[in-house]
User: Fold these one by one.
Assistant:
Number 1:
Amino acid sequence: NGAIDSGAILYVVGTLVMKHAKIASGLSTVEGAAIKRPTVSLSQYNNAIFGTITLDHVHIRNCYSDSGSAIIIFNQAQDNFGGGNTPTGCSTTISNCKIFHNYSRCTEGVGGTIRTGGGVVGNLTMTNTSVYENYAGTYGGGMVTAAQGHEETVFVMDGCKIHGNRAATYA
């Protein structure tokens, strides 16, 4: 699998529920080689509201990109009229997954496995998930999460194993 831009395998606008699946060998010259949810304003995509992302018993491996190699989840931007999503409406749940051997090759790469952010609210919950042996060219070999000033955003981990990840600057 491969792409010359973002979201090599899945580019998600809306809701994604994936169970008992394997994603492998995604290639993106930009970001999100396996899964990408972009940041967009409500006026893009005809006012579509992003739904939740749920991954359960999914293996993501051997994905390569310049930034956020396996999964990049940007939450929906607020529009000028106060619209947008609540933290619950833009939540991501990753359960019983294995995310390994992913590589962010660029020297400006951010997040060897999972990168979240986008400047708006959106919760991330990970349970019983292993994130291991991933690499980033700059920082966040395992994960990068950034609420970017939104105190409503929550990141919860329970029963996870994060180990053996490497980054050139900060792990």
Number 2:
Amino acid sequence: PSSLFQGIGTRSCRPISKHSRGGARTTPRLWAANSDGTLEMLNRGLESADVFSVEGKRALVVGGTRGIGRAIAWRLACGGARVAANYVRDEAAAKALAREAGESNLTLETVRADVTSVKGIETLCDAVADRWNPLSILVFAAATGVHRPFGELTLRHYDWTFGLNIRAFFD
């Protein structure tokens, strides 16, 4: 249900789970809102372990400072993961994300590297190796495209788009 993803991309770390009442903390229970406004428990029977926990995990989100990548990086950090959010061009977005994470006491850092080149991938790996090794979570959310009529596209446009959207993941 789409309501399960409420708050993704916001600057809030509001949990999307409910905890049982009482003194001892139990496994979070994930709930979804039905169309009639009632709640339905999604992880019934999984109370023995928190299978959705990212607490203490180390994550790298390539393309993690804008759009869906930013939302993923933020939610991972809110869940207790140590996050490296990669970016290449938009330094203002990267600085804003790092500032907001710091203000919220989240462990989220930004790493600038262009993953369309072997040198850029090496730069990213070197930057991440010392602090996030071994990685627990890898998210590849980087993407690009050229917004022009088909007749105006060149081989350079194709190479740029293919280089990030397809090839970079495999280099």
Number 3:
Amino acid sequence: LVNGSTSTGSVTVGVSGTLGGTGTVGGAINVLGTLAPGPATGIGRLTTQASVTLAASSVSRFEINKSAATTDQLFTSGSLALGGTLSVSNLAGTPVAGDGFTLFQAGSVSGAFAAYALPSLSAGLRWKTSTLAQGVLGVEYDPATYVGWAATRSFPGGASGQSLDPDGDGLA
């Protein structure tokens, strides 16, 4: 764990290693193992002024807390190359459509995560990963479900999809 500052040297996290904490790393970070910003338990921010590379073998573990409106964060004024798996756990609260959780801030972002391990959401919602290039994991309605579809529609006379289709079978 980095809870203070390291020197200006670069850091490579091996496949079985973990880099976490709430401090500042002085040099570039290359993660082959696990990146886990924040303290061992709780929310926090890990910072570097240099580039960060998340290799294909890496797992980036972030905690969010919907109730407290906080998230673990990685901050770099340099470049961030995404890769590997993004794993998120929600400590408290229930995410709703329109929520956005800032996981990282970077001077520039390239690449993408190859896999996701994300918390379950309420019916009709899905995680919006298309905003990760801006560092934000969002929540949106899933139009492939009836609940998501009905939430994005206008019904006559102020009726809701539920009142027009009380059994939820998609037929009014």
